## 1
Amino acid sequence: MAVRKANYAGSWYPSNPETLKKELDSHFNDKEFGPGKNLDCLNQEERQIIGGVSGHAGISYSGPASAFTYYKLFQEKIPDTIIVIGFHHRESHGNVFLDKGEWETPLGNLKVDEDLSNNLSSIGKVLKPNEEAFLRTTENSVELQMPFIKYCAGENDVKILPIKIQSHNYGDLENIAKELSEAIASINKDVIIVASSDMSHYNVYEKDQLQVLKEIDQGVINQFLDLNAKNVLDPSRTTDKTLYNHFDSPGPTVCGVHTMATLILTCKKLKASRTEFLKYYHSKDISTGGGAWTVGYFSGIIIK
């Protein structure tokens, strides 16, 4: 069985299981940036929270926000399967998913849900199975979700379906959402969806720039909370374009707008009706180091 290695273990997150668990414990118990408590599953019969947004930076930065999202997703009940929607930072493989095998984490491996992937393979015209796109790359947007999933799953057999989306075309994302929602509806399992995305990335040299970064991010967050996939996908539709001129790399820099848009479109097809804001902060809030480079982190969920 093919195993996708934990390529970022030992750099972006600890490779030692006990050290990783302690760090994740600290993020879940972070009262300022995270949920502020240990995960306590309520084992409810019906699920209401069906999706969420989680960051993918080194977990010392994005970890508390991600912990907030996973806390909410697992609090209602332990899911059978989590679809993780990531993307290609460095390589181009199209719109693809991993249809079999396992994903390594320091806390134990996670198995791909082959029942769900087989259904998606039979339905998919835009999303295609592609093992090479996962096993032969060091992409972090999907990998940084796996320690959180395994931590929350514990001894429970929670499976995964990793996806990478390359397209930023709204029509493609609508079709992907249609394929995903049909595959989910065709299987008698509790399936939830996570969109992997950090927020704006800019060099920030002064307080005014930091305020502008937060304003830009808040605009995207507001569109997510309104379940407006088009405006999330293209933040310039609703953002004052002069705001981007405050930075040396002008233009929108939220790196997972297409994952968040796909999450919204899929969840709406699964009867989602509302959202909940959980947390927003940026890297300078959580660490005094890092120089000028500043990144925003957001956690939010989608509810039936």
Note: The longest strand covers residues 293-303.
## 2
Amino acid sequence: MTKNLLNTDILIAGGGIIGLTMARALSTLPNRPSITLLEKDSNIGNHSSALNSGVLHSGIYYAPGSYKSKHCVIGNAMLTKYCLENKLPIFQCGKLIVAKNEQEVPKIHELHQRAITNRVPISLVDEQEAKKIEPHLGKNVKFPSLWSPSTSVANPKAILQHLEQEVKSISNINFIKEEGYGKLINTSDTSTTIETTQKRQITTPKFINCAGLYADKIAHEFGEGLEYGLLPLKGLYMIDKKPFKEYGLNTLIYPLPPLTSNNFLGVHTTLTTEGKLKLGPTAVPAFWREHYEGSDNFKLQEFLEIMTLYMRIGFSSKFFFYAKLLLNEVKKSYKPNFLKEAQKLINIYDAEGVEAMNRLHSGKSAIRTQLIDKRTLAFLNDFHVVERGSHVHFMNMASPGWTSSFSIAEDMKKSVENNVSFESLNKAYHSEKENKKA
């Protein structure tokens, strides 16, 4: 393929984990379609694909019947296999989800049942069993916990680099960096033409939008997803300078999340493949899409759009809900409060936390692609996939989007090969699961 490519069988916008796995899977279709993958940045992994925690979630939290409950479970197995087969860093350490008080015990049992429904390997363990798994469990953890053996931690950057090299070696994929989606020229049931950021036009019978933080903006140009707006949230971590092996830690420890909305899993511990102990995250507002630090990447239009959403929330019945939620998250981001939350989970720091305060430092944050329904001002909890004619849009691919990527790509391949909708594959999966259960 040449630099002046104007036609391609499949055009994918976005070279993050979703776009890379999508191109890889679609390249194996029987007709060997020509695939063009556009990435606006000079390097892959500048955003959530590389900046996420690296945790391969098991699929416990997500509502039965949702995209997340299917693709997280299947994606976990696929991504684990990919790491092992390609000798990529992976720490198969499992995860404990703990109740911090007696009032949370019924929720532990409810989450246990949800995990079983979602076909997630799970065990309900008592205090003694939990402390055999993790001897440094917090002193106040005296209630039943959930043990998730299929939760692992991988290295996002290593996976992305390996995927990039693999994709570049596939003859029917043209991976183009420093050239992203620019604007829509026209679209129909059979064809879409876009203009790139380099001012050239590309025509394709299948356009797939995997643009992460900008997926909703692109979808809006197609007239799709107009009822949703982005409310970007920055995940802040603290990293301990002391390697976790020196503490003798074995596994990840998470608090019990709210079951009605899994947007915030609370401050938890993560053990990285590089030997680091990470605490967090806590979610604070980002005021434009790539608002990582200070005024970096500032875009006035994005700032105004996001502030308009916050103003709408401020004058709505949702104000107190969001104010309380955000206040709690901002409070946690203060280092002493961060440490206090961590001490509820692990017993490795002195009571005053004086030594820990000197060892903890901020890690680079990721920004989640959180959509909000502009009609109800409620968070959208599931992945949002819109299919219309010659274009498909993958929006709201926040956690567990990274874990789910290989499974999502496989279903997109099935969708194209069998000329069925992506949504119908999800429904068929859950219907089959219900039939087997019956």
Note: The chain has two domains: 10-49+157-228+381-437, 95-149+233-368.
